[in-house]
Specification:
The structure is a homodimer. By secondary structure, the first copy, chain A, is mainly alpha-helical. Chain A has nine helices and no strands. The first copy, chain A, binds a DNA duplex (30 and 30 nucleotides) through α3.
Chain lengths: ~180, ~180
DNA sequence: ACAGGTGTAAAACGATCGTTTTACACCTGT
DNA sequence: ACAGGTGTAAAACGATCGTTTTACACCTGT
């Protein structure tokens, strides 16, 4: 495990568990087991570190949900929540803590959300066929269900994901039926 | 407008726009146009102020969604977002920033979310009838749709709420149909 | 008339923040 | 052999944090 990987994984853990602004550079250097000089050489500063953590998480999360069906998508989300815990979307949390006032962070968040939306659009298209007229609506609805289960899981547990999955399944089935008429 | 109301409304605005940890007591006293001595007498401290802001917002939000139908619920949410903006659920943001490590804040957040869940359960019950077997599932699904549209609206705009509304309507209609068979 | 409550302005508290600097040590490739 | 890169430990930077204190002023009810 490279020194850079150790920095990113320990920082991600601290940011996720205690919040971005509440985590000090001192805690970050101690958790990464390196000197502040080394941390600053690698990350540039706290904003750069947040940016790097979000970019790494984007890659990891996008890989986790790189599936071909709605069922697999929700299974991947259940698995992610089981291993990572349920503390809400780390990207939206970063955006909220920075108040949208740090362009580097806003950019990283919006880039992730654009990729996230595109991924869902792709899966919905694979599910309904490329010519279905309701692709956009369904994509938006599945996206809302996933964002919602991510938020709701914080206080309702993984049942929120199961319920969202059932809703998604019904929406897809109903949309298939409507187009069949 | 009392001095306490001015403090709570200006603090809510700052916390919402810049984040809780990023907002300093200095900014809060200046926005409330009072001395720090007065602020501390009224709020106790920063944690007390966050707590008071969340409690006040809970009352205001619960009043806004005190409706009798799913349609009115989503209309209320559209209206809320139009006047308040879309920066995510302030309660979950507070919880995330505090890392769940400040009991007073955790309590305020969880109390709100319990009331929020109960409110949705009440509306779903009014919509489907008290004896419908799927009340719990529908409640959880509507809750997920609302949490999701609150999060998604940050980067997808109010369309997310419209899509969630359509999904909720279809889920309710389908659940009615299933029980009719 | 005067006590109690409520307010201001400003200085000060110690603690901590993110960041930089200094002085030094160890590899590694040529 | 030695330069360059990469690392540590520790001190120091000025700025800012949340909070408390001091000294003073104005209402308001009795």
């Amino acid at each position: 495990m490279s020194i850079k990987t150790k920095l990113l994984t320990s920082a991600e853990r601290l940011f996720d568990q205690h919040g971005f602004m509440s985590t000090s550079m001192d805690q970050l250097t101690k958790a990464a087991d390196m000197s502040s000089r080394t941390l600053y050489k690698h990350a540039g500063g706290k904003t750069g570190l947040v940016q790097a953590v979000l970019t790494a998480r984007d890659k990891r999360f996008m890989q986790a949900i790189d599936v071909q069906s709605i069922d697999d998508l929700f299974a991947a989300l259940q698995n992610w929540t089981l291993t990572e815990g349920a503390r809400g979307c780390l990207f939206l949390r970063a955006y909220g803590e920075a108040g949208g006032e740090t362009p580097e962070i806003t950019d990283a968040v919006m880039a992730h959300k654009a990729a996230f939306h595109a991924q869902i659009a792709r899966i919905v298209k694979a599910e309904l066929g490329a010519n279905h007229p309701d692709l956009e609506l369904l994509t938006e609805q599945i996206l809302v269900l996933i964002e919602g289960s991510t938020s709701a899981a914080i206080y309702r547990g993984t049942d929120a994901i199961t319920s969202a999955h059932q809703a998604a399944t019904l929406l897809i089935a109903q949309t298939r039926k409507d187009s069949g008429i």
